[in-house]
User: Fold this.
Amino acid sequence: VQLVESGGGLVQPGGSLKLSCAASGFTFTVYAMNWYRQAPGKGRELVARITGAGGSTYYAASLKGRFTISRDNAKNTVSLQMNSLKPEDTAVYYCYTNIGSRDYWGQGTQVTVSS
Assistant:
């Protein structure tokens, strides 16, 4: 199982970024996919989740309306569109899935929101 994130970077407050996670090594369509984030000095928190078929999504309450999770099962990718970014969104963003009670994490991609 391999999860590889991309798309992070430096963005000004109010800006947008789209993160992507390329998945391999498992039957992608079967499993829910998640985005987590970890800000400096804080614990890792769930940002968003999408079911295997993509029919159901979940968002952290504080982020709903600004972030959108989606997946392309033909390309084995899951994305996170982030709009109206705030300095408090600064964090390392991780792609995550659980398969057979095992946790799989990507290496993370840094998002920095600053003027």
Q: What stands out?
A: Residues 1 and 25 are 4 Å apart (CA to CA). The first strand starts at residue 2 and ends at 6. The chain has a mean pLDDT of 96. The two ends are 37 Å apart (CA to CA).
